Amino acid sequence: MPFWLATFAVRVPSPTASAAQSDLVAAFRRRIAEVNDLSALGGEALVPLVVDGARVGELRASLASELGERWPDLFRRDPDRDVLALAPSLSDADARTAAVAGVTAALRDDGTFSKGWRDELCAVGAAFYAPPAFSIERACYPAFGVKGYGIHVNAFCVDPSTGERQLWVATRSRQKSTWPGMLDNLVAGQQPAELSLYQNVVKEAGEEAGIPEEIARRAKSVGVCSYRGVDEWGQLKNDVLFCYDLELPWDFEPVAVDGEVEGFERWDLDRVAAAVATGANNAIGEFTSYKPNCNLVVIDFLVRIGWLSADAPGYLQLVDELRQGDCR
Amino acid sequence: MPFWLATFAVRVPSPTASAAQSDLVAAFRRRIAEVNDLSALGGEALVPLVVDGARVGELRASLASELGERWPDLFRRDPDRDVLALAPSLSDADARTAAVAGVTAALRDDGTFSKGWRDELCAVGAAFYAPPAFSIERACYPAFGVKGYGIHVNAFCVDPSTGERQLWVATRSRQKSTWPGMLDNLVAGQQPAELSLYQNVVKEAGEEAGIPEEIARRAKSVGVCSYRGVDEWGQLKNDVLFCYDLELPWDFEPVAVDGEVEGFERWDLDRVAAAVATGANNAIGEFTSYKPNCNLVVIDFLVRIGWLSADAPGYLQLVDELRQGDCR
């Protein structure tokens, strides 16, 4: 046998890279793929929306064409690069916001944006820490492919008798219009411009789970997940989730303050992992899954605490796929 | 004031996003940029090396041209895509390894690969968990832009009196040819094909720090860092670092078994963060920095345990930049 053949040896499976671990990794990667699925576009291209040379969103090619044709003074399809640029004459955020508001109102009246109009403006910018380029009605956010930012909190506690971590799992209200009855992180919310991330975590922890401020302030930022896909309502999601860990006292019980949950339960991590992989019974005994983007936050938690073996085939890709969206 | 102006409010700095945190994030990003620096190429393109349609490495355009011209039966510059393909007639790993060995020996005799010849073959493949496409002399690894894989362990302990984590820091031997006297992770090593990652962690923990197997087996895989850059010796590094955390007992003292370190010290995380950002005195009192790629592993540790505030400008980019290389 040539001396170099040793390098071809098959990697010896690690004691912790069992078949079960390999199955988990494969199932987790399928969950990540669900929120990164662009197949609902049917092959239609996405055209970047550019302000002052910086990309602030993206639109289906058909909508980009429509905007360029109906409002040629406001939107310009760049002949060289396939981008839609907001007219440079709109030189500040106020001017852009007013101009875009006229466009979105016309599209609403046409029926293009028929659902979920809220008269609530959201900031649109080139990057999270940069000043917004303009603001746009929240209902139009996905159609303009604007990056969305949210905070998601893994609230866990440590069983004092075993030292094992358990994760709090919320069951979403069956009355919610989106993902009713599905599993959720204990605390999660969209990021408004007027709060810091940390302030938003503390606020949402109080509103969604009755967590007192002095406990919520123990939350720690532990990383980021991102994804880009079209959801089941055809909306383009281009989101960044800021992940927080919050250790709750063993005797603390979350309270559903705002009526958006059916109940809270504390699960061991085997059950959590199985819920991500294949589903589990929620707090009212229905078999369900996590709300799709929450899977990423839970998987990230399981990766960070060492729940998965790097020797399980696909682990490297799994970790990488947790941040498939732009982190801007 | 128009109703929508509220969305333009400047984000309120979080209590934990101090100026010091912002400075840390900026300094950490500079460290990450150091190992992702391709400027030493002087603008020369990198040409993918392809086997059976899969990319297994990349070469400077000048070397790719030389290989295609001198060994046209073995290497083919694809006329349509700018890639260098190994001839399909080399249909298995043995044949490719033998053919490439002839090429690298000729380049060694020419002086192209004059340094560090080891008569040691390393596997070259399209992905970590895939069988290797062929093997190549280790000294030629960087010139062929082959992905390198390593394990890096954050060995820490928890101060029983305060509950605070401290990180073990190694000072590299001053006799080492690479990065003498610089700071290092307690345990780190290249990944050989014949071991699992976990087995390699346990083996290196014993060899590099005298950690008994029963303790080393507590190591947990907690994520991945990656980078792609040209190092100070002009070598292209295209590496994936598998990160492990290992909590050591408070009374455990590492032992320099293989003579590759000057000493070990246990540092509080303020000192560790400062060492990454600006440098620190090593175990023999010299002011130095971490070995460049170790910075990523320590930064990833600090992110995961919540040492940094997501509100610090650049945090989102920092987290993303920890995996700038391909994770294949």
Write the layout of secondary structure elements.
The structure is a homodimer of 328-residue chains.
Chain A lengths: L18 H17 L10 E6 L2 E7 H10 L4 E3 L6 E3 L6 H18 L10 E4 L9 E4 L10 E11 L6 E8 L10 E2 L2 E4 L6 H13 L3 H4 L3 E11 L5 E12 L13 E8 H9 L2 E2 L5 E2 L3 H13 L10 H7 L7
Parallel strand pairs in A: 1-4, 7-12
Antiparallel strand pairs in A: 1-2, 3-4, 5-6, 7-8, 7-10, 8-9, 8-13, 11-12, 14-15
Helix pairs in contact in A: 1-6, 1-7, 1-8, 6-7
Task: Tell me what you see in this structure.
- Two copies of one chain form a homodimer.
- Helix content of chain A is 28%, strand content 27%.
- With 328 residues, the first copy, chain A, is an alpha+beta fold.
- Chain A folds into two domains: 19-39 and 148-321, Nucleoside Triphosphate Pyrophosphohydrolase (Alpha-Beta Complex), CATH 3.90.79.10; 45-140, Transcription Regulator spoIIAA (2-Layer Sandwich).
- In chain A, the strands form four sheets. In chain A, strands 7, 8, 9, 10, 11, 12 and 13 form a seven-stranded mixed β-sheet that branches.
- In chain A, a hairpin with a 6-residue loop joins strand 3 (75-77) and strand 4 (84-86).
- Chains A and B meet through helix 3, strand 5, helix 4, strand 11 and strand 12 of A and helix 3, strand 5, helix 4, strand 11 and strand 12 of B.
